Each structure stands twice: as C-alpha cells, then as structure tokens.
Amino acid sequence: MKRIILTLSLSCIVGCTSWAQQIKHVILVSIDGFRPEFYQEEQWGTPNLKQMAKEGVSANGVRTIFPSVTYPSHTTLSTATLPHKHGVYYNTTVGENGQPGEWIYDSKDIQVPTIWEKAKEKGLTTASVSWPITLHNAFIDYNLPEIWDFDRPMDRITPTKLYANPKGLFDEVMAQALGQIHYNQLNLSSLAMDENLGRSAAYLIKTYKPNLLTLHLPNTDGAQHSEGREGKEVARAIAGADKALGNIWDAVTQAGLAEQTLLIVTGDHGFVSTDFSIAPNIWLKEAGLLDRAFFFSTGGSTVLQVKNPKDQKIVEEVTKVIRQLPERYQAMFELIDQSMIRARGGETKAKLALSGKLGYAFSNQTTGEVITTSKGGKHGYYPNFHEIYTGFVAYGKGLKAGLVVDQLNLEDIPVIISTVLGFNMEEAEGVYLPLFDSKK
Ligand SMILES: [Zn+2]
Q1: Which of 61, 114, 341, 354 lies most in the core, judged by the most C-beta atoms within 10 Å?
Q2: What's the CA-to-centroid distance between 415 and ligand 1, angstroms?
Q3: Distance, CA 380 to ligand 1 centroid (Å)?
Q4: Are the C-beta atoms of 410 and 64 separated by less than 8 Å?
Q5: By C-alpha distance, which of 38, 21, 46 is closest to 397?
Q6: How many angstroms is it from 31 CA to the middle of ligand 1?
Q7: Contact indicator for 362, 272 with CB cutoff of 8 Å
Q8: What confidence tens digit (pLDDT) does each residue in 65-85 have?
Q9: What residues form DSSP beta bridges with 129?
Q10: Which parts of 189-277 fold into alpha helices (H)?
Q11: The model's pTM
C-alpha cells in the first residue's frame, strides 16, 4: 500500500510540475570540493554561479555521506544510494598494511544500477567527462572516464584515449576542441585541467546533444588540499570552474537546447582547513591492539578496520582506549559509533570511527609523534557540520527562480535528475524535491 501511495505521489509531482516536463537534457557538473560559500559570498569570482543561483534554485548546503570522500560521493550522485548499497566505501581499497590500496576506477565495482544505465533503458543518450568510476561503463554513449597512468600518474591523456568510448572519441575531442595539449594541461598541476574538461563537455553537448551529461571538475579540490578553504589558488580554481560553467551554458544555447536543459552544479564534499594531524594507530600500538585492528584514515576521519571479523571484543577495547585518553586529546575529534556510520551509509562492517574537529585530520602513521603539523585542507569528516557540506545550484527554464533550499542530501540530486528525465531509480535512498514552478 505504501509503495502505491509513493508511486502515485511521484507521478503527481511529475504531472503537476509541468515545467519540469519540458526538460529533455540534464547536465550534472560536480566541482570537486564545491562549497556554498563560492556562490553566496562576495569574495569569490564566480559570476556564472552567482547568476545561476539568483535566477535558479540553490541550497545553503548539501549533506554528503560518510566518509565524505570523492569516489564514494560521486557514486552516490550516480546511483542515488549511499555507500552501504553502492559498495564504494573509500577512494581506494584498504591495504593489508593499513595504507591505501588500489584506486577504485572500474564501473564493475558499483553494486547498483547507475543513472546512465537507467537513462539508457528509457532510450535516452548519455555522455560523461572525467566522472569517477566510469571505466568500462557500457551505458555511457560518449565517455571520457577519469583515469590516469598508474606508473606515470601525471599522464591522463594516454589512458583517456585508451579507455574512451567510443574508441577515438578523445582524439576527436582533441582535434575538434582542445588542440594537441600537453599532459600537464590535463592534470592537477594546472588549472588548464578544468578548462579542458569543460571544453570537452561543451564539445559533446554541441555535437551529440546527449540527454544526460555528467562532468567532474577536480581543480578546486586540489587547491583546497594545498591551502585550506581560503587560499589564493582556491580563488583561482573556483573562478576557473565558473568559467567552464559559462562555456557549457554557451554550448547549450548554441545547440538550441536552452529551453529544455536543466544544469545542476554540485560537488562531493566541503572542506575543513587543518593545522594538525592525529595518528591514532600509535595509541593502538601502545595499548598492544595494533595487531588486531587499525584505523584507516580518509583525511578528516579515520575508520577502525578489524583484522579478524570474529574478534568480537576489539571494538569495545579500542573504544575504551580512546575514552581513557586525556581530555585534551579527546577534544580533537568526535567518536562516531555504528549507528552514526549507518545513518550516512558508511562501510557495512565498520563499527567505530573518529571524525576530526575543526583544524584536525588523521594519518595512518604507527610511529613518531601522535600530533604533527598538517597545514592545508581535508575532507572525509562525518557530515554533521556546515563546513563539510557541499553546494547546489540548479539553472534552467521553469525553476522556482531565486528559491534557496536550506538543506538537501547528496542522494536526492540523482532522484531529481531521474524524475525530471522520466526514469526511475528503484534502489534510490534520496527523495524528489520539486524545484520547478507549476505551469499555469
Ligand atoms: Zn572530492
């Protein structure tokens, strides 16, 4: 009965919001490390974002997932589910030695259907540029996946050519839109990366007019890792991403699609400026527990990994060690229990994590000083405070102009996209939020 009511109310939403029905194209842009301040504060040079927020719909914050890291967050955006369903808990696998293992990049590692798959089922065309975990995704008609050469990580051009779908697509984009770029113009050493990714997306929009296009712009993340939330490079990076957005909307207009396109700009997490790094594995080592469990850092948080799943007592023992630390140490982080991990969809088997307070991050170190200096920025924190929330701007015809939503959840965004484009995400954990005016 409940399901029937839900279905009816959903169809009513779609039926009632007829401005949404004219939308045939959705462009989802993720600016890595995107924060609401970038369109809400005067200081940032983001004329496109500010205008889009003013004329469209924006949010004061988007609650992300746990841990608030790039690949799991992007997979929530591409599946409408939290990590416990989509199966991507971290950017990498967790190595036996407690260090990050292999990056997760192949789409086979996602356990639920993606928005591209569901869009294809509906007969829509799909495209993607630099979106995490899209390698070998058979449901993206025009795909330039995010990938780099594992031996020479600065080279993204060679593997992008290799894994582009259809074959030859990146050569075509270079020939028609980018020119013969050097590999440093497509990696985090230069703001040319976002510029070239934006141009690639603009080319695909103009040439192939896909119904759904996803684009990931990484430069703003790189700048905030180096400088924290307020640096000069952060200002340059977000201005560069903003310019890419302007180019993309120009491409939409030139393609004659402005009346039927919804552009959503969001991100994967916010950022916290840090001064210090904590190495909790040193406490476990001192307590003689490190051979049974270790903390695995995501940057802003660290998640306890138990070596033997049958070891029932270890979580309790580690919790006791943490609780018995001097108050001064305990003031540096929040203890995240199993129910909190579950609430934002964290790793199914995880029972304990620590999330840093403002200014604090974590390392995997097992030797040396417990507290070390760590100037810059981190994410990965438990998403229960504003700094770690990402942003949201929706732009297009028929939106409730100037509406500012206080908060939405990351998993709501793909549900908005699927509802507007007319397909269902059956596994979705997000909800549809009506952002369009009713047609009179
Ligand atoms: Zn990120």
Answers
A1: 114
A2: 21
A3: 9
A4: yes
A5: 21
A6: 8
A7: no
A8: 999 999 999 999 999 999 999
A9: 144, 215
A10: 192-208, 219-227, 232-254
A11: 0.95
